[in-house]
Design a protein that fits this description.
The chain is of the alpha/beta class. It is about 35% helix and about 15% strand. Helix 4 (about 120-130) links the parallel strand 5 (about 110-115) and strand 6. Helix 2 (about 50-60) packs parallel to helix 5 (about 155-170).
Length: about 170
């Protein structure tokens, strides 16, 4: 089992609450039990290994994908429910409880982030943490203190192992 709860070093300022460290099997349970999860994927998905796992998560759990930045081009010919949206717009929409989501089916209850630049997504997560009741889960290789729950800082190899363990437990 990959221990993803170590190395929680923070690189930016944070508020009074920091993300709880989470193991891959617990992250999988959270995703499985969520009524309306959304996987938010960014440009680091251009890496083939991360892409393969993002697609596996989306397919196995039937979670829709919000592809930000240039990530959408990697999902075009895949059999997943992926839509493009700007991450700043998504952050604003997620703060609106009347927003019905990318598919018009209702507000999301769990936001899962993967393949983001840490300094960029952490600011969006800060807004969600401070101004919404949404649960956010970072399954990225960096500890994101503004998420509700997050993997710790992981090497690229351990990160892939953690994602494989998560997928296995979905």
């Amino acid at each position: 089992m990959v221990d993803t709860t170590k190395n929680l070093k923070m690189y930016t300022t944070h508020g009074t609450k920091s993300a709880k460290p989470v193991q891959p099997n617990i992250a999988a349970k959270l995703i499985s039990k969520a009524k309306r999860p959304l996987l938010v994927v960014a440009s680091d998905v251009l890496d083939e290994e991360i892409l393969k796992r993002a697609i596996s998560i989306a397919k196995k759990s039937k979670v829709p994908v919000a592809a930000t930045g240039n990530a959408i081009k990697r999902f075009v010919n895949e059999d997943v429910n992926a839509k493009y949206i700007n991450i700043h717009s998504l952050g604003a929409y997620l703060g609106d409880t009347k927003w019905t989501g990318l598919d018009g089916e209702g507000h999301y209850d769990l936001i899962i982030v993967l393949a983001h630049k840490k300094y960029y997504i952490n600011q969006v997560l800060s807004g969600l943490k401070n101004f919404t009741d949404l649960k956010t889960l970072s399954i990225d290789k960096h500890y994101l203190q503004n998420a509700t729950m997050s993997f710790g800082n992981l090497s690229a190899e351990l990160h892939l192992e953690a994602l494989d363990e998560l997928i296995e437990n979905l």
